[in-house]
Design goal:
3 strands; globular; three-stranded antiparallel β-sheet; mainly alpha; 12 helices
Length: about 240
């Protein structure tokens, strides 16, 4: 599995600003229109930047990379992250949540009706600002939300994937395909979307598309439960 951090010459804990600066420097150097342009290298660094510059896709890539190094891979590892932290780790976990929050939404509802839909980062920033500038009203507002309204935190990729599963199980292949593809576009390294697309195409008799998806899975997650499922399907399709 290709290390996208090495492609951009940045450490694996690089900040978004460091990733952006590294990409710009390399893009200027290898752009096909420059004197020493290299189209193949330019495509590589552009792809690496597209994955690592978006918080959710970076999180899924990091997870896939860890699984690859550990020679493991199970579907449960792609569930939305849960954290157990002590007081001394709160600062670290808050920074991580902020980094990963681009595709996580905070939704406030009343009797099932959506009243407010904010990115997790914006909701966190507003709450923090409220506690700094007006702590008492902010506390009262939060108490009011908890008592009279419903609040949920939703990961958009996981939400889209769940909708795709429901469409798949309900026998609506066109809707399932569209939703799985949306998941893959939002986060290329969200492996369950590729695996289920392969299964869907196989069910529809579209062998070539199924083979492409199962091979994509093996590029990202060749080990463990995920790799075994993709390899088994490829063997049965006689395309691997």
């Amino acid at each position: 599995m290709k290390n996208l951090y090495e492609t951009l010459n940045v450490p694996e804990d690089a900040s978004p600003d460091e990733i952006r600066k590294a990409f710009r420097a390399l893009a200027r150097r290898f752009h096909p229109d420059s004197g020493n342009g290299d189209e193949s290298r330019f495509r590589e660094i552009t792809h690496a930047h597209e994955v690592l510059s978006r918080a959710e896709s970076r999180r899924d890539y990091d997870r896939a990379l860890r699984n690859f190094r550990a020679r493991s891979g199970d579907l449960s590892s792609f569930a939305p992250p849960q954290f157990e932290v002590g007081v001394d780790q709160l600062g670290k976990i808050l920074r991580e949540l902020l980094r990963q929050g681009a595709l996580t939404r905070v939704r406030i509802k009343r009797n099932g009706r959506l009243l407010l839909d904010l990115p997790f980062t914006a909701a966190t920033a507003l709450t923090t600002l409220g506690f700094v500038l007006a702590p008492l009203p902010t506390v009262l507002l939060n108490l009011g939300i908890n008592r009279f309204l419903e609040m949920e935190v939703v990961n958009l990729v996981a939400e889209r994937f769940e909708s795709a599963l429901k469409a798949h199980e309900a026998g609506r292949p066109a809707d399932a395909e569209r939703l799985y593809l949306e998941c893959a576009r939002m986060s290329e390294y969200f492996v369950p979307a590729h695996l289920n697309l392969g299964l869907l195409y196989r069910q529809l008799g579209e062998k070539k598309k199924a083979v492409e998806r199962f091979r994509k899975v093996l590029e990202i997650a060749p080990f463990g439960e995920i790799g075994a499922a993709a390899r088994r399907n490829l063997d049965e399709l006689q395309g691997y």
